[in-house]
Amino acid sequence: MTRTQMQSALNSLKRLKVDLYGKDFLLTWDRSLDELKAVLTVADIFSELHKAGKSFRVFDTGLAISIFRDKSTRTRFSFASAVNALGLGLSELDEEKSQIAHGETVRETANMISFLTEIIGIRDDMFLGEGNRYMREVGAAVQEGFEAGVLHRRPSIVNLQCDIDHPTQSLADLLHLKKHFGSLDKLRGKKIAMTWAYSPSYGKPLSVPQGIIGLMTRFGMRVTLAHPKGYGLIPETVALAEANARASKGSFTIAESMEEAFANVDVVYPKSWAPFQVMQRRTELLKKNDRNGLVELEKECLANNAQFKNWECDDAKMKLTNGGKALYMHCLPADISGVSCVQGEVSKEVFERYRLATYAEAGNKPFVIAAIIFLARISNARKVLQKIVKSKRH
Amino acid sequence: MTRTQMQSALNSLKRLKVDLYGKDFLLTWDRSLDELKAVLTVADIFSELHKAGKSFRVFDTGLAISIFRDKSTRTRFSFASAVNALGLGLSELDEEKSQIAHGETVRETANMISFLTEIIGIRDDMFLGEGNRYMREVGAAVQEGFEAGVLHRRPSIVNLQCDIDHPTQSLADLLHLKKHFGSLDKLRGKKIAMTWAYSPSYGKPLSVPQGIIGLMTRFGMRVTLAHPKGYGLIPETVALAEANARASKGSFTIAESMEEAFANVDVVYPKSWAPFQVMQRRTELLKKNDRNGLVELEKECLANNAQFKNWECDDAKMKLTNGGKALYMHCLPADISGVSCVQGEVSKEVFERYRLATYAEAGNKPFVIAAIIFLARISNARKVLQKIVKSKRH
Amino acid sequence: MTRTQMQSALNSLKRLKVDLYGKDFLLTWDRSLDELKAVLTVADIFSELHKAGKSFRVFDTGLAISIFRDKSTRTRFSFASAVNALGLGLSELDEEKSQIAHGETVRETANMISFLTEIIGIRDDMFLGEGNRYMREVGAAVQEGFEAGVLHRRPSIVNLQCDIDHPTQSLADLLHLKKHFGSLDKLRGKKIAMTWAYSPSYGKPLSVPQGIIGLMTRFGMRVTLAHPKGYGLIPETVALAEANARASKGSFTIAESMEEAFANVDVVYPKSWAPFQVMQRRTELLKKNDRNGLVELEKECLANNAQFKNWECDDAKMKLTNGGKALYMHCLPADISGVSCVQGEVSKEVFERYRLATYAEAGNKPFVIAAIIFLARISNARKVLQKIVKSKRH
Question: pTM (2 decimals)?
């Protein structure tokens, strides 16, 4: 970015109507287009500042808390990077270390960790119907604590992946597309295929495909969702994508094969997930801690999956895309045939061709998270950012 | 707090004789009344600064180490918040991660973690006769290291709960009382009932009730301790409370029922603990790693506990207190009947009425810990604090 | 250090040819004598600044990542201290917490943790032939990411102990010797015995003895390595020590008993390790996860070890050293007879006499690590250091 481009990016923030200050960031479809654009613009500026070796620290002290109810490397380190860059200290609430596992109520814990806390990042994607609800419970709890004067400030909650959406991922993906095509405007009319892909494991969350169809349909893209019969997403999220597409004058269609979905598209996003109904059954079994039931379900699902080994993103299918040159995307880690598994979501050849591109895609995430936190916690965000850009601090 | 109140609080520090610099903070009864008052005053000021969005960071760099030999959410995050607010980095010594479990001596480890360390917070409340002794061992070790030139500075130890006392909790509780009644002076003559309460678990530490009777008796309060027969505290701590009460012209009495203890009191603190003798037996069994013995002891104790299910703080008993309006206190998490257990320490109704008040009570803890660290590590504490208050840094 | 000594140390940096900026620090023998001298000089200055209560923070924000593939207290806290002192935030990649254990490639993870990262510290000493290779893989991965524009900056890798070398330990040891004898020049001709010692455990890494013979031979020391038959080090590291000794006009000899090695030496470093061949077999068994094989191997090795219980550093053997007053060194924790085990590497009497000296030896490590990071990440290191020394910032 030249100095002029940086200033132009800063100026563009003036034209956006943004109401993120003091708010939680839980679902992209809770936020206006202007707000999403502001996040991407700030993320872009932060990335450029980092590239130039300039600090964008805005906090002298303060805590960021992360609660990971599922394993994570990428999102964990993205969050750690983002809060560090802004000047916050990170404390992780590990449920095995803390008393949260001993019947302590969410309400109470939420306040106990929030006395000097600016931001709470939560990943809770295991249980259908639970993750996003848990985040809202935490948000309600700190709101109550704030209103009662228990908390001096109400921390903001950031969804680091739930059962419904994975907004920091989908926004990192959107930023990847913005850079790839040149601008958000240029996404209009571009075709993207969000497709199921075969994996030797089962039980992967639905949040990524749901996040992608829920977000990309808002920017006038022509989105196709494809999966084998019985591998559907949460119906409400599909309905939402349809409504979004109508509103943005893009389109949303469902295809029945990877080949059909790939035909002439500009972008492919082939990724495994567990069918909605399986996730429902799994959630019940997990709640009951029914180990035998879980083993049975896994057996059944893997057998089911095995019928769809041809749902692999390989060179032959890539040839069906627009000029044979669609952009391959993945949230990582991908199940790469012959690399991380015998047969998986993507062939070794295709993945290798786009490997560094997927790394760059992931590289947007720390800046997206930092932008979300910045806009949620800094009241006069644009002016503060203008000051940072002008300052000589390194 | 108005600007005038803030300045008056600052001025009050001038009149206190404080010798906390470079010291450990292990038991409230090791410290003078002036020192305890200074801690509360600084905590109050820090809390006000935080409310106003002002930083009270005093360290550019430096480590705080925490050693948790028992699970913790509240104290862990209070410590994390406090050290972050002062500008220190936190490193947790997890005994499973480190070599401390492999026969490494306390003496050596204490020095190994202290080369650039300002403060060591320790929670060690599982073994009777061990926790506080361990803290003193660590203190002696870093003293030796400092005197030998191994350490450039001698870190201070803060007791984050031991077998005897829980000073950061009891001081947070005292600050709660100070705010509730308006000043420390107004505590004089006020009645507080520290009582045992029924819990479906067993083995809770003695440090909270001991800390409360050991501290509140110093401020002229009329303290009643109540528990079923055989549920006594460490005898020395009871003797100490008696002596404190004589010295402060308060009083200390022992009652035999929750009803008797609650009669006409201003404050109630109903909380479960394991009898002193049980903790002694448990300590021996834990040391021997005698699993069968522990299971037997738990069975015996739970059967014993079950005789005292009526030791529940409910509306009927609250009516016995002064005007039926005593302040309910708890260090959290409470065993709430019908919420976190079938029957527990407190009825759902009573707890709900005071729920947010107990959160506020807990909210004092980060500021109390920060105040203790500040006074232990900053030589000209009052002047530095005066500067912070006057500065415009945010 | 007086102000003049400090300035003289700073000036000495001008005369050194140092090419550490942007580099990894993996083996001391990858680096020139000038570079090693620069590390020690900067470490010395940092230590003096810390003693004087002066901050040497150079980063406003930025992450340091540590990857510990083996338990650690000392090195973990040394690294935590060093990065904190420089202003970096620490994030630990715990392989159990992250997805690294689930087949994720090193290449990908290396990039995922590096987007805003300045330094990656790695301890990987369990598998012969693996640890150092893993570090180079991580280095190659971030290099690729940097060249592809995925990473804005390429983080530097610091070896916190591998299968071959333990450079931060051996440099801390070298700094200890420098202080003990007055200067690096005075090490010329001094005799040091790096000897095996008996331990009731088995499987201790080879990196310390290898690091010591590989480093001390470069400074003109007369190095003797001693161990029972069959307890050899990796042959290449022994050959390297021989070549180093020839080049530096020191010497390198192998003795067959502790007594022979101790004769008239100025320094002794008695420490247990597992024979090279055992480590090879152990590595194979660990890779296959062959539990029975590991139990068998341990049995065999402990029986073998038991033949050499007389390899204990005791008063009688210490009398054989130069004037009976050789400096005893150890990387800690030592197996101390009658303290941490029935019989071990060193007698209680000898260890107690040098106990605080070994603490001081360990105390060099945080400053050595800070110096390595400083030289790897700050392009105009000498000038920046000069500024820090002159500044009044505390």
Answer: 0.96
Q: How does residue B69 score in pLDDT terms, banded at 50, 70 and 90?
A: confident
- Is the per-residue pLDDT at C240 higher than 70? yes
Residues B13-22 have pLDDT tens digits of 999 999 999 9
Give the torsion through C-alpha atoms of A377, A382, A387, A388, to 10 deg.
Answer: 60
For residue C394, what is the nearest residue in chain B, using CA coordinates? B60
Measured distance CA(A144)–CA(B356) in Å, rounded? 9
Is residue B82 within 8 Å of residue B29, measured between CB atoms?
Answer: no
Count how many Cα atoms sit within 13 Å of the Cα of residue C51 in the half-sphere of its side chain. 16
CA distance C136 to C107: 11
The CATH number linked to C242 is 3.40.50.1370
Confidence of residue C101 (pLDDT cuts 50, 70, 90): very low
Do C355 and C243 belong together in one domain?
yes
> How far apart are alpha carbons A79 and A358 in whole angstroms?
18
Which of C61, C97, C144 to mutate to test binding with chain A, by most A CBs within 10 Å of its CB?
Answer: C61
The answer on A140 and A207 residing in a single domain is no
pLDDT per position as a tens digit, A233-282: 999 999 999 999 999 999 999 999 999 999 999 999 999 999 999 888 98
| pLDDT confidence of residue A255 | 98
Question: Token pair for residue A81?
Answer: 């990077």
Confidence of residue B95 (pLDDT cuts 50, 70, 90): low
Query: pLDDT value at position A72?
Result: 83
User: What is the average pLDDT score of chain C?
Assistant: 94
Neighbours of B283 (CB within 10 A): 16
Q: Looking at the structure, do residues B178 and B268 belong to the same domain, yes or no? A: yes
Amino acid found at A287: K
Residue B297: enclosing H or E segment and its boundaries?
helix B291-306
As a dihedral over the C-alpha atoms of residue C138, residue C142, residue C144, residue C148, rounded to 10 degrees, the angle is 160
- Binned at pLDDT 50, 70 and 90, residue C102 comes out as very low
- What range does the domain containing A52 cover? 3-165+365-390
The pLDDT tens digits for B252-300 are: 999 999 999 999 999 999 999 999 998 889 888 888 889 999 999 999 9
The b-or-e profile of C351-376 (16+ CB within 10 A means b, else e) is: beebbbbbbbbbbbbbbbbbbbbbbb
- Residue B102 clears pLDDT 70, i.e. is over it: no
Torsion of CA A261, A263, A269, A275, to 10 degrees: 10
Among C156, C52, C148, smallest CA distance to C108 is for C148
Chain B nearest-CA residue for C96: B97
Tokens (6 digits) for A272: 């495994």
Which residues in chain C touch residue A90, judged by CB atoms under 8 angstroms apart? 89, 91
Same domain as A340, residue A378: no
- A122 and A210 part of one domain: no
- Name the residue among C108, C117, C150 with its Cβ closest to that of A333: C108
Q: Give the residue among A126, A123, A191, A196 at the shortest CA–CA distance from A160.
A: A123
Into how many domains does chain C fold? 2
Q: Taking a C-beta distance cutoff of 8 angstroms, is the pair C312, C197 a contact?
A: yes
Query: Is residue C43 located within the same domain as residue C32?
Result: yes
Same domain, C43 and C89: yes
Nearest Cα residue to C64 out of C21, C116, C110, C112: C116
Best residue in C92, C100, C106, C115 for a mutation probing chain A (most A CBs within 10 Å): C115
Distances (CA, A) of B126 to B74, B202, B280, C119: 17, 12, 10, 38
The ipTM, to two decimals, is 0.95
**Are the CB atoms for A57 and B391 separated by under 8 Å?**
no
Chain A CB contacts of B87 under 8 Å are 61
pLDDT in the model for residue A39: 98
